[in-house]
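Course assignment 3, question 2. Fill in each field.
Student: A.L.
Task: Predict the tertiary structure for the chain below.
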Amino acid sequence: MNVFGGGACVDVKELAVHRGLDSARFDNLLMKEKTVALPDEDPVTFGVNAARPLLEGLSEGERGRIEMVIACTESAFDFGKSLSTYLHDYLSLSRNCRLFELKQACYAGTAGLQMAVNFVLSQTSPGGKVLVVATDVSRFAAAGEGGGEDWAFVEPSSGAGAVAMLVGESPEVFQIDAGASGYYGYEVMDTCRPLPEGGAGDADLSLLSYLDCCEHTFLEYQKRVEGADYRETFGYLAYHTPFGGMVKGAHRNMMRKLAKAGPEEIEEDFVRRVAPGLHYCQRVGNIMGATAALALASTIDRADLEAPQRIGCFSYGSGCCAEFYSGVATSEGQRRQRRFGIEAQLEGRHRLSVEEYEQVLARSGAVKFGVRNVRLEHGLVPAVSASRAPFGRLVLDEIEEFHRKYIWQS
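Answer field:
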């Protein structure tokens, strides 16, 4: 599993002050930074840049056993063609491969992961692997081009990035507990994206739906896994993280209801079992379908794995569908995971000033949904360097008759 958090970020506290947001409310977000998608970054570039390091160590034969590429996103730019075809092309994978895209808000990455797991478990193609790429991008209108809710508290918490996962029958980093899963879903209009460049929703309803699904997915998990206990079974918990404060509230709710825990125990438990999974999320922001996997990657990188630990994972997607599942991580898996240097990659991003951030927003309209022809200007932020990416960095070069064309910067 690898994360790509882009080339640039912004300090969300500085952004909140610039927007004049209520500082008391902002502190409850528990956010630090968020990745900002540059005009020449899109869901394909984020996805390919996350996936390429996973493939570099594979032999030609092993690469040939990748028989499915699943793109998981709500940021697609084509109503018909899947962006998995672009991922497949720029990763130079075998043509004997299934290519498709999944959409279900922030649940998409988990849907793709579970589909991959079930393909492997089915043994219809022994030795076959699946590349799951969860990739999403938030772009906001420049000041004066929408305003209103577009500039509310969703702006500091919405990021951009991708998580790529290579799923096979010999897991090295995270071994999923087969069949240990509770899922739960129903129709609710908590958030939606009826327009390509913007969304709508009810923040209070979304919070209530998230809490409801968090509880009921675990109760279903508990029915399927004899003896499962929310406090005792899991060494760590990785939650889908719209923002850190929402996770803290959900964990408090679960510990009160299921463990009858008091405030001091809840706080200690949050710091010990949950906080490791928030670290990357606090630096990248909510990347929708990829966020649950981002929390899992953060947990594995930062957990104490001197002894193997079971990690409980909660994934929620508005609309809604949710799932609680689990797996085991080990010290050897952590060592392998840390090879990708996710923390160093995030540290290497250029931190935009608020003025630079506004410039990026103003230029991002060039690649909005439905653009037919455009050639991208590279170097808008000169400090963003491809040298920070070990294999170079894929960027969008032009759109010609709707066809997106990319180049490697090295």
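Instructor remarks: The chain has 14 helices and 17 strands. The first strand starts at residue 2 and ends at 4.
Grade: pending
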